[in-house]
Specification:
Neuraminidase; four-stranded antiparallel sheet; single chain; mainly beta
Length: about 350
């Protein structure tokens, strides 16, 4: 067979494989964009989804406990979240379920732990989370395989001993995990980034504010975060900073507390929740600023979560998000994580 015919056959085969994989992913993922969030509207806290306009709200879980921080898998087929029983708010474990709410499976099983704040690696093979565990000084960032195996601690060195490290967010290129840490050595809550294969750490923010819940933008150039002048969170606003901590700009300013921001898949909008004394609702705001729009108006607390759009699977830029289209154009990143 001639070389041109071999090349054409290879291209046809690649196209067939790509369309088959993409069709399989889309078939199991939501057909349209959805925001996963947690709410107390059914008692306790359960995981819900809704459209970007706040419509089509439906419950995914009925676990009768405290379910928080849902995060979509990169392909949209699964959602990972933390859960704890109503009788013991201090106990939390990590669960994963299908995007339709079925087959909820416990991933972390160590007793007397507080596992929370989950994030997926870009290839969906690993999950990072924060955990407070017996016989370990402080709260630390851990990483495990997507099936819950091979749990490994990342924050081993100064200044994280005895500190409270939480809210990990995996960068789109897989190179770093951003997280918040505060304790006796840091003074205020600051954002750091750690390389999971080498555990090399760099500090992103250092401005004397209490910076929390940082999330990478889809292109990896910016971080969205919540920030307050003190630890009491009484005046918390949403800010955007460059990935190196420069060019800090306030995106949302409001007398009430705005927290837990997350990007839309195309980076054009940000979803967050706003506390009104004892209640909270989910809002969305344009990346360019302007008034925030109320998505939920329920008497119970609604907590912001995560945004997924199946259209992003086919149009994401190569090197920015590892999705089926990118698998044929660039090698898939594989993290090297040492025990």
């Amino acid at each position: 067979m001639s070389r041109p015919r071999v090349a054409r056959l290879a291209l046809v085969l690649a196209y067939v494989v790509h369309t088959g994989v993409l069709s399989s992913v889309v078939a199991q993922a939501p057909r349209g964009p959805e925001i996963a969030f947690s709410s107390g509207r059914a008692g306790g806290n359960e995981i819900y989804v809704m459209g970007p306009d706040g419509g089509g709200v439906r419950a995914l879980t009925q676990l009768r406990g405290r379910a928080f921080r849902p995060r979509w898998a990169p392909d949209g087929r699964k959602i990972v979240f933390s859960w704890g029983p109503l009788r013991d708010p201090g106990e939390r474990t990590i669960y994963v379920m299908r995007a339709d709410g079925t087959q909820a499976t416990k991933l972390t099983r160590e007793r007397d732990t507080h596992d929370s704040s989950v994030t997926w690696s870009p290839d969906g093979r690993h999950i990072a989370f924060a955990s407070e565990r017996p016989r370990v000084d402080g709260t630390h960032i851990y990483v495990m395989d997507a099936d819950g195996r091979n749990v490994r601690r990342l924050t081993l060195d100064w200044p994280f001993e005895g500190a409270y490290s939480t809210s990990p967010s995996w960068s789109p290129n897989g190179a770093e995990i951003a997280f918040t840490s505060w304790g006796p050595r840091t003074g205020t809550a600051e954002v750091f980034a750690i390389r999971p294969h080498s555990r090399r750490v760099r500090q992103i923010t250092n401005d004397g504010m209490w910076n929390r819940s940082a999330r990478w933008s889809p292109d990896g150039r910016e971080l969205i975060l919540e920030s307050s002048p003190n630890a009491r969170k009484q005046d918390t606003d949403i800010y955007v900073v460059d990935s190196d901590g420069r060019n800090r700009a306030r995106l949302v300013e409001h007398p009430h507390r705005d927290q837990s921001p997350a990007w839309s898949p195309d980076g054009s909008r940000v979803v967050f929740h706003r506390f009104f004394w004892v209640d909270s609702d989910v809002y969305v705001v344009d990346r360019g600023g302007g008034p925030a729009r109320n998505l939920t108006r329920h008497p119970s607390r609604d907590w912001a979560g995560d945004w997924f759009d199946p259209a992003a699977l086919a149009v994401s830029d190569v090197g920015k998000r590892l999705v089926p289209w990118g698998w044929l154009k660039a090698p898939v990143w594989r993290p090297r994580i040492h025990p």
